[in-house]
Design a protein that fits this description.
- By secondary structure, the chain is of the alpha/beta class.
- It has one domain: TIM Barrel (Alpha-Beta Barrel), CATH 3.20.20.
- The protein contains nine helices and ten strands.
- The strands form two sheets. An eight-stranded parallel β-sheet has the order 8-7-4-3-2-1-10-9. A two-stranded antiparallel sheet has the order 5-6.
- Helix 1 packs across helix 2, helix 2 runs parallel beside helix 3 and helix 3 packs across helix 5.
């Protein structure tokens, strides 16, 4: 099992390059940054975590900028978006962002994606909440075309462009691995069609037998589609730092767990990181 960490990279927290160096020095496999372009002040959409929305949601850096800083400060640490709200981004620009970070990091980028929960945030980007998964599908399909073809073109309901030239291409072939977030009734459809891994949130996916049953179902779905289940690993995002919980997840077929760091200053974060490193060892 691989162990990574995730943190909202905010303007008041430890710098992403400093954090990445410390994470790599302690032997973790990866670091992941989430994103929100903004949070509408109306706060109509309730936070799935319950209660008041923490301030890091509207103070975080752009993940591609933060991950580029992390890439420049490290040599082996893998770098992931956890998650990127692809329904709020232009797919041509996003394809270049992903490819650029992957090239600059020498092929260490991992692309965690999801549909998001904040309807009015999406509306500010021109995205209809009820269509977000259809838009996500076309965005990913269009980006795959851009990454793998010299003169890509794409014609869909939401994304449409004639042949273009777009470089760089990603360092990884055919592209960085895509991890599909979520744990809904259609999630495995999206994993099977579009992704290279499944990445549900730890606090929202049941551990124990239920997670094991879901893992078995995903393997069956992948086999039925002619895909190798071992090539589509499960990553659990935001796992409690508990050895028994992690052991159960490993038994259930989880390949990677991502442990949570608080979005705070260096003096607050590093002791937490040290404790997590002890747990991993």
């Amino acid at each position: 099992m691989d162990f990574g960490v995730y943190m909202f990279p905010t303007d008041y927290a430890i710098r992403p390059d400093e954090l990445a160096r410390e994470v790599e020095a302690r032997g973790f496999e990866s670091i992941w940054f989430p994103e929100h372009t903004h949070i509408p002040a109306s706060r109509r959409s309730p936070w799935p975590g319950g209660g008041d929305l923490p301030r890091e949601y509207w103070h975080c850096y752009d993940p591609f900028v933060a991950l580029t800083a992390a890439a420049a400060a490290t040599t082996t640490l893998k770098l992931g978006t956890g998650i990127c709200l692809v329904i709020e981004r232009d797919p041509i620009v996003m394809a270049k962002e992903v490819a650029s970070v992957d090239q600059i990091s020498n092929g260490r980028f991992m692309f965690g994606i999801g549909g998001g929960w904040n309807a009015e945030e999406m509306e500010n980007h021109g995205t209809n909440f009820r269509r977000r998964w259809r838009i996500l599908r076309e965005n990913i399909m269009a980006m795959k075309t851009i990454w793998t073809e010299d003169e890509p073109e794409f014609h869909g309901d939401f994304v449409d462009f004639d042949p273009i030239w777009s470089y760089p291409k990603p360092a990884q072939t055919p592209h960085p691995p895509i991890f599909m977030g979520g744990d809904g009734p259609r999630t495995f459809d999206r994993v099977v069609e579009l992704a290279d891994g499944w990445m549900p949130i730890g606090g929202r996916v049941n551990s124990g037998p239920k997670l094991g049953e879901k893992a078995a179902l995903l393997r069956t779905r992948l086999e039925d589609a002619g895909r190798d289940p071992d090539a589509v690993p499960i990553t659990i995002f935001g796992v409690s730092p508990d050895a028994d919980t992690i052991a159960r997840m490993e038994q259930d077929g989880v390949s990677r767990v991502l442990l949570t760091l608080p979005p705070e200053d260096r003096e607050t974060v590093l002791p937490v990181l040290d404790d997590l490193a002890k747990l991993v060892r």
